[in-house]
Write a structure and sequence with these properties.
The protein is an alpha/beta fold. It has 2 domains: 226 residues, P-loop containing nucleotide triphosphate hydrolases (Rossmann fold, 3-Layer(aba) Sandwich), CATH 3.40.50; 81 residues, Alpha-Beta Plaits (2-Layer Sandwich). Helix content is 35%, strand content 29%. The protein is built from 11 helices and 14 strands. The strands form 3 sheets. Strands 6-7-8-3-9-10 form a 6-stranded mixed β-sheet, sandwiched between helices. A 4-stranded antiparallel β-sheet has the order 2-1-4-5, covered by helices on one side. Strand 1 and strand 2 form a beta hairpin. Helix 3 packs parallel to helix 5 and helix 4 crosses helix 5. The chain is elongated. 33% of the residues are buried. Bound molecules: adenosine-5'-diphosphate (ADP) and magnesium ion.
């Protein structure tokens, strides 16, 4: 488990991390999301000791990440594979030798039968067994990221740290890479930390997410909760929640849907029962891993509001009356 407790970090007098705490459980796919400049990459670099932090502690299975203890740090870094937005492949090496690079760095021979088997298995895992001798320039962005993933796994890490790993890829390729990360998590039991500014990424694979804003954790929890009912203004803005476009007359009632696999016809039932009609003025319903989550805003006459709320209570639907 990775435990981050009250970590602070500043660059030349500017505080970039301001007392960040979170626990990342073994086996999890944990997302760290937030605007650009929030401190996400800095936090990730503190976790794997590429960057020292000022105060607080980061421990990995009870070992403190301490950049001054070079030997312990190297052993820790060996347990953490890392992938980036820009892939960071060496152009002059082919796919095989790019994947083998961390072995080389650790003085492990890369041309033994065992090494070859390991690298070929990884290339199979990422679906590039027919690109063994290609150079990075001959590969698409998605394929380059697959090479980087294989490389990150070559030393059998316990953790895979991903910094905006899909931000340079188009939506279809992003989905494929995320599915691959999910497979790696499930089949190899590798804990994955995903740093991203894309809610799509969190929605598709993360079981837990921390929202980072200006160096502080605003919220940690299940992504569907953060998505369905974002309580902090910063998160609402980030998610582009319903805003100034709502009607300013009548009453605006927001309904929340949590994992309604086969959605119930709540709105039409309610209209029929109350003998009135509503204006649906804002809505978002989306797939999260396997279920549907979301919310919608109904505008109605003030006189219908009480009856509508009672109806929703009777159906166990969570609601909120929005203030103007
Ligand atoms: N090496 C550095 N030197 C000085 N400032 C830095 C350095 N790295 C990051 N920063 C600053 O720290 C803040 C957070 O950056 P970063 O962690 O990259 O955010 P994010 O990954 O969330 O976009 C930014 O204001 C950035 O300019
Ligand atoms: Mg970043």
């Amino acid at each position: 488990m990775i435990r981050i407790t009250n970590v602070t970090k500043s660059f030349g007098g500017t505080d970039v991390l301001k007392g960040v705490s979170m626990d990342i459980e073994k086996g999890d796919i944990f997302g760290i999301i937030g605007q650009s400049g929030a401190g996400k990459s800095t936090l990730l670099r503190c976790i794997n000791g590429l960057e020292p932090y000022d105060e607080g502690t980061i421990t990995v299975d009870d070992t403190v990440v301490n950049i001054r203890d070079k030997k312990a740090l190297r052993n820790l870094q060996k347990r953490m594979g890392m992938i980036f937005q820009g892939f960071n492949l060496l152009e002059r090496l082919d796919v095989y030798h790019n994947v083998a690079l961390p072995m080389k760095f650790w003085g492990i021979p890369t041309n033994t039968p065992e090494a070859r088997e390991k690298i070929m298995n990884l290339l199979k895992l990422v679906g590039l067994e027919n690109k063994v001798h290609s150079k990075p320039r001959e590969l698409s962005g998605g394929q380059k990221q697959r090479v980087a993933i294989a490389r990150a796994l070559v030393l059998d890490p316990d953790f895979l740290l991903c910094d905006e790993a899909t931000s340079a890829l188009d939506p279809e390729i992003t989905k494929e890479i995320l599915a691959l990360l999910q497979k790696i998590n499930k089949e190899m039991g590798i804990t994955i930390i995903v740093v991203t500014h894309q809610m799509e990424v969190v929605k598709q694979i993360c079981r837990k997410v921390a929202f980072l804003n200006k160096g502080k954790v605003l919220s940690v929890g299940q992504p569907e909760q953060m998505f369905v009912w974002p309580k902090e203004d910063e998160i609402r803005q980030f998610l582009r929640e319903e805003s100034d476009k709502l009607p300013t007359t009548g009453a605006n009632l927001k309904l929340f849907f949590y994992g309604e696999g086969n959605q119930r016809p709540i709105v039409t039932d309610m209209a029929r029962e109350l003998g009135t009609s509503f204006n649906i003025c804002w809505a978002k319903l989306e797939d999260f891993r396997e279920d549907v989550y979301g919310s919608l805003v109904l505008n109605m006459e003030e006189k219908d509001l009480k009856k509508a709320c009672d109806f929703l209570d009777s159906k166990n639907v969570t609601w909120e009356v929005l203030k103007f």
